[in-house]
Amino acid sequence: MELALVIDPALSVPLHQQVYSQLRWAILSGRVQAGQRLPASRALATSLGLSRTTVTQGYDQLMSEGYVQTRLGAGTYVCDLIPESLLTTKTVVHPPTVANEIPLSDYGHRVQQSPPRAQPREFDISFRYGQPALDLFPVELWRKLLSKHCHQKNHWLAYATTSTGHQPLRQAVADYLKHARAVQCTPDQVIITNGSQQALSLITQLLVNLGDPVAMEEPGYRGARHIFKANGAQLLPIPLDRDGLRVDQLFNHPVTPRLVYVTPSHQFPTGALLSLPRRLALLQWARQTGALIVEDDYDSEYRYGGRPIPSLQGLDSHGSVLYVGTFSKVMFPSLRLGYLVLPKSLVEVFDKAKWLADRQPPTLTQAVLAEFIAEGHLERHIRKMRLCYGRRRHELVQALYEHFGQTVEIFGDSAGLHVMAKLPLLFTDDEAEARAAMAGVEICSAQMQYEVPRNKGEFVFGYTAIDEDQIKTGIHLIAKAFQP
């Protein structure tokens, strides 16, 4: 048979690749039918003015991919079933039926009762919290490290030997936490997780039974609250003041919780710093009751009025604290890597649970992050961002006072990635959000962080993902929108 193939030696594509590509297209387009015999390699080479070796290479690639097959003494034929056919199925048409409701488990019902996730909208200016300045991350450096590890060896293609994380990364995290956060740990106590949410989920699954009481700050991080509720915990909201969690309320509470969740270094959302006397009292309470403390240290690297506050875990001498951290805030959210520092007695069971959940985080990403930390790039980035975020926080606070006067109340220490402020409003938080949205500005009420939502005029302003000019403009626009 004659095949109209066009081979161009002037192209950068190798000749055997051109033979392969054109024959493959002839098969896919139907010019050459299933079961049809291809020309002998010698004959096709002669007709195209190519060497037989070149044509044979093209045939071999088609054969290795399942497009053609040889028949002993009979030549080369197109396969009856080509690879693309194995990737598609015929559409099955079912008669219309009434769909039956698929029953959910008890856990499924609790998840279903969780508040729906808000669909993000685009705004001219957004004070959404928890968003780092992605445009200032050293992307080129990260890309070079990624390329380096891609080309070094292919160990990252296989399953990891442990579910607890890449050992160099666990070592790097342990070293970093020791000197940056005064955390007491060895690499063996560190488990690498897919963000802090997975860490909280593992903690709840392994340590909280259905109906167990779990204490939380009120207001407090709703992401943790939803996890506890979905797993059937009974929430005990514990009030706050300017020194953080009211630990005396735990001592006097008629119910002893299984664990207490706290953000002591920069309380979310109020920004309060848990004072040293209360830290010591909380640890004493945990020792007396046998309860556990979950310390979520989500953005403590960013303090603008002094050194970062040492961790609560670093004061613990009885193994009462489980320490949770994430790289989403100091680097970028899509990295999806966090860590969990455990008392030694819990490492084995968490290792098994992590293996059941997802086997392992991506090895390549972990290897790159391990070098990023070990070579000092993370701390250099944090120092740079601390200066930038400090300026933006100052601009936000000044703008709030300028437009709302001394009637505005700013909560918390000079730290973190957000400010909580109470504004003088004559209407509800929902209306305030709607008025701001009409002006092209996104603001977030703090009421969703309460177990019992309330309209208090409290708003959480993220300032890290927008520059100083946008901050000034945004506050001006919402002040104007809030006018009667």
Spans with pLDDT under 50 lasting ≥5 residues? none
End-to-end span in angstroms? 85 Å
Percent helix range: 25-40%
Radius of gyration: 30 Å
Key phrases:
484 residues, alpha/beta, Arc Repressor Mutant, subunit A, Aspartate Aminotransferase, domain 1, Aspartate Aminotransferase, domain 2, 3 domains, 8-stranded mixed β-sheet, 4-stranded antiparallel β-sheet, 15 helices, 16 strands, elongated
In short:
The chain is α/β, with parallel strands linked by helices and 484 residues long. The chain is 39% helix and 13% strand.
Can you tell me about this structure?
It is built from 15 helices and 16 strands. It has 484 residues and is α/β, with parallel strands linked by helices. The chain has 3 domains: 15-87, Winged helix-like DNA-binding domain superfamily/Winged helix DNA-binding domain (Arc Repressor Mutant, subunit A, Orthogonal Bundle); 125-129 and 380-481, Aspartate Aminotransferase, domain 1 (Alpha-Beta Complex), CATH 3.90.1150; 137-376, Type I PLP-dependent aspartate aminotransferase-like (Major domain) (Aspartate Aminotransferase, domain 2). The strands form 4 sheets. An 8-stranded mixed sheet has the order 4-11-10-9-8-5-6-7, with helices on both faces. Strands 12-13-16-15 form a 4-stranded antiparallel sheet. A hairpin with a 2-residue loop joins strand 6 and strand 7 (244-245). Helix 2 (41-48) crosses helix 3 (52-64), helix 6 (167-181) runs parallel beside helix 12 and helix 7 (195-207) runs parallel beside helix 8 (222-230). The chain is elongated and about 90 Å long.
